[in-house]
From TrEMBL:
UniProt-listed PROSITE patterns: HESB (PS01152)
SUPFAM superfamilies named among the record's database cross-references: HesB-like domain
Protein name in the entry: Iron-sulfur cluster insertion protein ErpA
Designated gene of the protein: erpA
Organism, scientific name: Nocardioides bruguierae
PANTHER family, alphabetized: IRON-SULFUR CLUSTER ASSEMBLY 2 HOMOLOG, MITOCHONDRIAL
Pfam families found in the cross-reference section: Fe-S_biosyn
GO biological process, one term: iron-sulfur cluster assembly
Length: 120
């Protein structure tokens, strides 16, 4: 008999959240780049079929009003306009047969499009 263990991550409602799996993947990607001056920037931009879409990318800049949160040595940066949309959201990384990549579970999103790329 195989016992399945579910790992739960602590989730804060007053900031962005990054799972330990996602933090590990970000560290791995940064190691591949050979850069220690980059941070993971997450923002919400107009676009997509539901009105808003997420952007995740590595950035070396720090902008006025940025909120920086550290997760196991990984700096996650959110611009001040995106903070209200992302508070409480959990960024995770999945690697299955069906899909691979970062996922965002956002309690602030009231709906999303069929492709899953945008939300409102």
């Amino acid at each position: 008999m195989t016992e399945q263990v579910e790992i739960t991550e602590e989730r804060r409602a007053d900031s962005i959240n990054l799972s330990s799996v996602a933090a590990g993947k970000v560290k791995s990607l940064l190691d591949q780049e050979g850069r220690d001056d980059l941070q993971l920037r997450i923002s919400v931009q107009p676009g997509g079929c539901s009105g808003l879409r997420y952007q995740l990318f590595f950035d070396e800049r720090t902008l006025d009003g940025d909120v920086v949160t550290d997760f196991d040595g990984v700096a996650v940066v959110v611009d001040r306009m995106s903070v209200p949309y992302l508070n409480g959201a959990m960024i995770d990384f999945v690697d299955t047969i069906e899909k691979q990549g970062f996922t965002i579970d956002n309690p602030n999103a009231t709906g999303s499009c069929a492709c899953g790329d945008s939300f409102h």
